[in-house]
Amino acid sequence: MDAYEKLINKAKNESEFRPSDGPKKVKRAINSSKWKIILSTITVILLIVPTCYMLTFGYYAFGTKSTTLMDVASKTLYITEPNTTLEEMEFDMDFSLFSMNLAFEQYKQIGDDFYPAKHYDLQFVLNDLVEKNEDSKLEKVYPGYPTQTNQWIAHPKQMIEFDSAKEWRVLAGLPEETVVEAYISLDNLYRVEEVETAMENVDVTWAAVYTGREETMLSSDGDVISPIGYPVQPDETYWSPFRESTSHEETFLEMLKELQPYERIAEEVSPHKNLELEERIAYIEEQGFETYGVVVTGPKSEIESLRELDMVRYLKVGEVKLWNWAR
């Protein structure tokens, strides 16, 4: 055998498969594939997550704007939550994948001062409100989902569940050095200006607007509806839609129209349901503004004196605080 043939045979012998080497080669191949898959997955995730965040910011900036959802939430509470206001600087907004969290504080006027009423935490996934948490700081439990008779402000033809005579006795038993928030149901429909003139020694803070359905609190479809209304006192809070408003009534009507395309979200945000904005807007535009009940605040003695007014039908005591009336 010449030298060339010896070299060929040697190469064949060295490359010959040895069964004992098989499992080791298979294991190395599997490990190598696993690491390739892991590294590929990590690479894809590192690319997808920033992309998803960019899409989220883009959606809330240009699709359904974050400020739009914030506007819907705040305006809904102004018209459905009597005697409340919000502070712009109290709004906290956080974004996560395809979602936005909105947190803010709500305040009530009791006497001359404003006190924390509730803390709201809202979570939106894209355009849908998926979670709502309320932390109430109030002493009273206010009706949430209304029935036809559990309203704190009642139309002259509407019956109520609470005992108004008992409420007057509760008011009489309060110390003189207190200021009170009270819900007043009227004996007829009035212009807000008439009510303010008759109740000159207290602040009329919120007026419930008559929309043609409050006798029964049922919509034309037979659904229980919620009271709606607007703040009466000037509100210079920067975030308030009534800031520098020349007519709170017209601002209120404009707010209803702005909320109508987002009525489903508004009903989810509000503790009350079934706003039925279309038919109520139509009634107000045709018939104008009248109120059947108001929220007032002031010294205990001045609230008591309202019982002498013929226009006062029912009273429901709200929040009570120590004296802060500086007038």
TrEMBL record:
Coiled coil: none
Pfam families assigned to the protein according to its UniProt record, in alphabetical order: Sigma_reg_C (PF13791), Sigma_reg_N (PF13800)
UniProt xrefs under InterPro entries: Sigma_reg_C_dom, Sigma_reg_N
Organism: Ureibacillus sinduriensis BLB-1 = JCM 15800
Descriptive protein name: Anti-sigma-M factor yhdL
Domain Sigma factor regulator N-terminal per the UniProt entry, residue ranges: 27-112
UniProt keyword annotations, A-Z: Membrane, Transmembrane, Transmembrane helix
UniProt KW Transmembrane helix keyword: yes
Keyword field contains Transmembrane helix: yes
Domain Sigma factor regulator C-terminal residue range list: 171-319
Residue intervals passing through the bilayer: 37-62
Taxonomy of the source species: Bacteria, Bacillati, Bacillota, Bacilli, Bacillales
